Amino acid sequence: MSKPVTKIGVLTSGGDSPGMNAAIRAAVRTALYYGLEVYGIYRGYNGMIEDEIVKMDSRSVANIIQRGGTILKTARSKEFYNEEGRKKAYANLVKRGIDGLVVIGGNGSFTGAYKLSQEFGLPCVALPGTIDKDLYGTDFTIGFDTAVNTAVQCIDKIRDTADAHDRLFIVEVMGRHAGYIALHSGIATGAENILIPEEETTIEEVITSLSEKEKRKKLVNLVVVAEGHSSGGANGVAEILKQHLPNLDTRVTILGHIQRGGSPTCLDRLIASRMGYHAVESLLEGRHNVMVGILNNAMHYTPIEIAIREKQRLGDDWMKMVKILAS
Amino acid sequence: MSKPVTKIGVLTSGGDSPGMNAAIRAAVRTALYYGLEVYGIYRGYNGMIEDEIVKMDSRSVANIIQRGGTILKTARSKEFYNEEGRKKAYANLVKRGIDGLVVIGGNGSFTGAYKLSQEFGLPCVALPGTIDKDLYGTDFTIGFDTAVNTAVQCIDKIRDTADAHDRLFIVEVMGRHAGYIALHSGIATGAENILIPEEETTIEEVITSLSEKEKRKKLVNLVVVAEGHSSGGANGVAEILKQHLPNLDTRVTILGHIQRGGSPTCLDRLIASRMGYHAVESLLEGRHNVMVGILNNAMHYTPIEIAIREKQRLGDDWMKMVKILAS
Amino acid sequence: MSKPVTKIGVLTSGGDSPGMNAAIRAAVRTALYYGLEVYGIYRGYNGMIEDEIVKMDSRSVANIIQRGGTILKTARSKEFYNEEGRKKAYANLVKRGIDGLVVIGGNGSFTGAYKLSQEFGLPCVALPGTIDKDLYGTDFTIGFDTAVNTAVQCIDKIRDTADAHDRLFIVEVMGRHAGYIALHSGIATGAENILIPEEETTIEEVITSLSEKEKRKKLVNLVVVAEGHSSGGANGVAEILKQHLPNLDTRVTILGHIQRGGSPTCLDRLIASRMGYHAVESLLEGRHNVMVGILNNAMHYTPIEIAIREKQRLGDDWMKMVKILAS
Amino acid sequence: MSKPVTKIGVLTSGGDSPGMNAAIRAAVRTALYYGLEVYGIYRGYNGMIEDEIVKMDSRSVANIIQRGGTILKTARSKEFYNEEGRKKAYANLVKRGIDGLVVIGGNGSFTGAYKLSQEFGLPCVALPGTIDKDLYGTDFTIGFDTAVNTAVQCIDKIRDTADAHDRLFIVEVMGRHAGYIALHSGIATGAENILIPEEETTIEEVITSLSEKEKRKKLVNLVVVAEGHSSGGANGVAEILKQHLPNLDTRVTILGHIQRGGSPTCLDRLIASRMGYHAVESLLEGRHNVMVGILNNAMHYTPIEIAIREKQRLGDDWMKMVKILAS
């Protein structure tokens, strides 16, 4: 059996997502409760290499549960991709006696943790921190609920002005490979069409549906597109639609980075708190190199290498419902 | 086998909850899609008795998915408790040929539907519409997520002023028999103590924990109480605390009815849409007299009489986490 | 003296702005209170030409004070630019005996009202409805406060993610000829630089200030640009900055149409209510062909032709304050 | 002429209000820009007595412009009422060479500043920080706009549930002596009646208006009451109404302390920034012992003793408008 963990490091890495602070807070306080020392590692693996590592106490994480962003900052680290960088980074942990790591981030961040565990035997636990929701082994990822609510609130505003003008709005939301934000925000705002990377909805179908609506004088319409859709995002879609439906008064809005920020929703704070709490318990109980998730209302532990490889898949019957409800 | 349903009525009953409009919209549009006629019944069972029943089309539910409250209005009906009232109500359905019913509400509303199905053989489907979340057979109830986010946003504001003044705030949230709003909003706002009807946390424990905090000069504290806690809600708690901890600067806030209103969150719109959609499919497929829920990510159908009788139970390990994280 | 007004029409025209519904409500109810008949004209001058004119009562404007957009819809009308169109439009008013007009919109909408008053002697009153705030003769325009708060809330979210990543964000807000949204939202979010059409701030100054900040390791920076700034908006600025400051991690967000929608702020509802109320009083008291404004806390009436010609000018000392506060 | 100020102290005192942090930030950065030293005094005059005084630099006020509450904390100090306390406090300033003071707060806080200026010749400048808006010599007070928007958003939510149930809601907002929050939030939410300390509206008028409405079946009604109204706030009003209108379904909500917190609106951040900036300029230019206000769009300086003595008065014609618009 592995040696008990006594000092842990916590870091956030990759794209930031709302709720990361709640996860940091939970991990830090749970570790302190169990008598561990805790270190905050700044700017993800960059800070591990650059030795930006600071001891944390209970006050370090006071009054942050409601804040967007991450107090530990985040970054993508190129140097960490090669072994040299990782050795340097690991040496900084060893120097302080850090013998356990909590990593909050997405796929790329998990890969870093996996490397550390493989190359140096460092016990790692990963938390799913991404607004994209497409990670395997968990029903929730930290930040998705906030991001999708931000998108919904913005699209609600856009609908006000679309209604006032009888306009077609094409709204682009985040999601390079995953359509969850587009799908959920589109359904929740009554979008007429939703274009996501995972589905075959073609622009032709959108054109058909919109021209049918034009005929019956339904002129206020909303199309939600994931940035990663093959059409080239909202601008791509708009260009094609203008060619085929030149009479429609069309506007494009790209929501962009506002989807990453903001005070986290209750759900994101709650799952982040639970995950941070169970991350430390997991390290203590010797359940290492796993991603902590919540599946069917229970904590669920997926080996990191599987979490990296697999994707959460969209269910099937969504698109039929979209079509019926937006009619 | 039962005759196929051809005309359905939709009503909301009991306390309103955000997302009811999204459920109405989904039920109406799905029914129209399948060629059914749809009638809106106003003011719950009251309107069924008083014959406030109006035919609905697709436009009737346009632009409502984002609205709080319920366009069909709601009420509690005393007359419906006796058979006379129900006969009168049912006659109004028969008059129009309404042969299926979608009821959105809580426990009391389900009882009404159950009576109609038992006494007149009317096919009914119930949707869980309550901010209290304690219904059996579903992980989500329509309105809970919005209510708890409203509570969280309010408590965040209260914490601003608590911090500025080094005060103890006692905040009362809704929940006569169920502590879900208190529990989730309390964890999400870092409450020091959470008092809910289901748990044995005594005021003594709160006093102990607060006086320990007073000793180490942690003066900003937050206690979240469900209105149904045995101490008599926030005012009851405040009175006891003032006796035992007279040096604390204590304030009470009762959030009240703001928790029922507001534009629904993405999650509430989404589950309400799915439930409304599957309610109609359920009626069409002959799956009658059930409550439509979502359990472990899949639609789940609970016989109404069981949904009425059973309660969702809180998990166990929450309170330990509360204590550790608020330290 | 002119004949007393007995039947009025109300319309919204040009770009929509939050609070227009509050102004409609106030105008309608005040007119009804004084015994006038009121007609809603849909889609601005378009609907006047197409005869989309509907009688309104007190219920027509119930429950709209909190809604974004405009229940009367809005449009820009090309046909109204030529006399033929205006004659047709006026005939539709005459047909109903409409002898007074309340127009809510911006400069272009005022021009339409001015033409009607000049060509047909129709008593008109104009209300300043624009998110741009640059109208002459009023301290407030309906919609500005909401738009600028929407911008602020979005930029707050962007700052979360900018902070997490040490990034430079360039945010584009609305304002083709006027920098009010950029200036106010920029100051309110602590922007390092603000670029507006009215001021000479050159990109060179921005480069100088950012490279000075780069030297002292202040990497999180925010530049707010009005869409009408000579640099070509946020994308234009980003391109130039990337050339001169290649080490900065730069991102662009264009807030776009979300600034037009949303539930109006208290201030916008209040000034819209006052303006709508005084518009009708103004018509009744024979104060015609004026724009109703609020200047130095009192109602102020500017002849429409002057309101069309003049612009509100920015005060001087803002930019010095921006520089000092963002240091 | 007085000696030039070289070191200033900044404090917040009395009830906190959103935007105080923006004012602190502006005062600190403007002072640093002009080469002054700046000290933060914690917990108002309490901290001055207890010597909780900390030197501040530009980073001390980074990332606070958007935060509710006050980073300097606030308190009411009994000890400062007697000369002994003030001597002790002033000695702590002298010890550090602090020769100028910026006080952010309401009437009581101004009195403290006035005493210091009278007794010790300390140059003071006061900023109007109160959600009540009733201070003399300024159109804006820091926090009012945020508080009233919070009230409006809450009442909007309450209206959702009032509408769903055909209920009468009586909502109490803050304001012991001033009715501004009640008046503005009441108009902005279309309240049927508004009860404020300054006006003679009697409960009898409310009863008359509500029973007239009951007769014409308008059952959804909203009464907004300032806590300081002679009827005894919302509970007092409800009791009387229930006696006279027993058929109405009446509910009470007391908004309470949520009105003090929350991220400040654009307007509050802007005026707080301007006031903080001009407070320091005022100290430097020898304009001492004044309250910095904004009147008719220009900075306005009122001698503190006048600011303490006088009140802002409500305009007259508001109540007529309330009655007409809510009809």
UniProtKB/TrEMBL annotation, chains A, B, C, D:
NCBIfam families: PFKA_ATP (TIGR02482), PRK03202.1 (NF002872). Belongs to the phosphofructokinase type A (PFKA) family. ATP-dependent PFK group I subfamily. Prokaryotic clade 'B1' sub-subfamily. Pathway: Carbohydrate degradation; glycolysis; D-glyceraldehyde 3-phosphate and glycerone phosphate from D-glucose: step 3/4. Residues 7-282 form the Phosphofructokinase domain. Mg(2+) binds at N107. The gene is pfkA. ATP binds at G15, R76, S77, G106, N107, G108, S109. Its cofactor is Mg(2+). Its EC number is 2.7.1.11. Its main location: cytoplasm. Gene3D superfamilies: 3.40.50.450, Phosphofructokinase domain (3.40.50.460). ADP binds at R25, A26, A27, V28, R29, R159, G190, A191, E192, R216, K218, L219, V220. This is ATP-dependent 6-phosphofructokinase. Homotetramer. One of its GO terms (cellular component) is 6-phosphofructokinase complex. It is an enzyme of class 2 (transferase). Catalyzes the phosphorylation of D-fructose 6-phosphate to fructose 1,6-bisphosphate by ATP, the first committing step of glycolysis. GO terms for molecular function: 6-phosphofructokinase activity; AMP binding; ATP binding; fructose-6-phosphate binding; identical protein binding; metal ion binding; monosaccharide binding. It is found in: Cytoplasm. The active site is at D132. It comes from Panacibacter microcysteis. Allosterically activated by ADP and other diphosphonucleosides, and allosterically inhibited by phosphoenolpyruvate.
